[in-house]
Design a protein that fits this description.
D-amino Acid Aminotransferase, Chain A, domain 1; Dna Ligase, domain 1; four-stranded parallel β-sheet; 9 helices; 32% helix
Length: 338
């Protein structure tokens, strides 16, 4: 079946449109929207076409297309999504996490440059293209260091090296995986005194909660519940590696309290870049210095951690979208009456 984007129709009521390429990750949000009774529709953007001259339907459009879409066979979903966002914004539609936010989602280098401009510390990083250039960047940085993909998601391409020889063997071996955009980041390894990172979640531009994430099993830290079944790139939740010991602490724990000057600074960063929904990932070194190493605007939430804390991200996100739709409708009615 050919996938074509709908155009505006006379007297059609406005609704919430979810732009995505992963049904499993979107399902919890759709359940929350149904619980609220909020009118909604999904646009799966792995492929399709639209008429650039035709106005889009009325409503609120939430973009949650992932930079890891190529791992699910949706190689050009981000490129197509960028086209759809340009269309929506050209016609003045209300977009949550639009083009400016999406540009940062698709490039770690762009994220780090933007974070640095806002005075937020990031790990020293050298973007590189080419085998010899990756080695030269690592030589300049010095061991230990991490490699990661510039366009990523789910911890793609993240590997820790303690020598140039180990990196060279990796680059020449069958395990090497090139970033989908060809850019590999060589990054200073930040050693934390304990094996965990913190993820700070924002919904509607406001702090929602912070999560402590155990990194002892590796760097691939997708919190989505769908990652816990049949996805070895996303070892989340108890038993992800066959260990069902009841004494083992959960991988994701929502912190009862999280107080940091970073919360206000993250909020200002989001406002400056048109970001409404995001999770900031940070690591603190032995000296107490905090480094922000990822801004994930296709944020997911872990059901076990939320049940334990009584905080539910998808319900809060659905409420934000419903409130945004109500405000959008009120504004359209006021404009029509003027």
């Amino acid at each position: 079946m050919v996938n074509t984007m709908p155009r505006a129709r006379a007297n059609e009521p406005a609704k919430i449109y979810i732009l995505h390429e992963n049904d499993a990750w979107t399902a919890p949000l759709l359940a929350a929207l149904r619980e609220l009774g909020a009118p909604h529709e999904t646009w799966h953007l792995d492929r399709g076409f639209f008429d650039l001259a035709a106005p889009p339907p009325a409503g609120v459009f939430y973009n949650r297309v992932s930079p890891s879409s190529h791992t699910r066979g949706h190689r050009y979903a981000p490129e197509y999504t960028a086209c759809v966002l340009a269309w929506l914004e050209a016609h003045g539609r209300r977009v949550v996490n639009g083009s400016a936010a999406f540009a940062l989602e698709l490039s770690k280098t762009a994220q780090y440059a933007a974070l640095t401009r806002h005075g937020l510390a990031v790990p020293h990083s050298l973007p590189a293209v080419g085998r010899e250039e990756i080695l030269a960047a690592a030589r300049r940085l010095g061991a230990p260091f991490i490699t990661k993909h510039n366009r990523a998601g789910k911890g793609l391409g993240v590997h820790l090296f303690r020598s140039l020889e180990a990196l060279a063997a990796y680059l020449d071996g069958p395990a090497f995986e090139e970033s989908v955009d060809g850019v590999t980041l060589v990054q200073r390894y930040i050693e934390a005194p304990e094996p965990f990172i913190t993820r700070v979640e924002f919904i509607g531009g406001r702090f929602f909660y912070a999560v402590r994430v155990d990194t002892s099993e590796g760097f691939e830290l997708c919190p989505a519940d769908a990652c816990q079944v049949g996805d070895t790139l996303c070892p989340t939740g108890d038993g992800a590696h066959g260990d069902s010991s009841p004494a083992k602490p959960p991988k994701f724990q929502i912190l009862a309290r999280f107080e940091s000057p970073l919360v206000a600074r993250y909020g200002r960063f989001m406002a400056a870049h048109g970001i409404e929904i995001a999770g900031f990932e940070l690591i603190t070194d032995k000296a107490g210095n905090a480094y922000t190493y990822d801004v994930n605007m296709n944020t997911n939430y872990n059901a076990e951690a939320e049940a334990a804390a009584g905080r539910f991200g998808m319900k809060a996100l659905a409420a934000h979208l419903a409130e945004t739709l109500a405000r959008s409708r009120a504004g359209a009615e006021a404009s029509a009456a003027a």
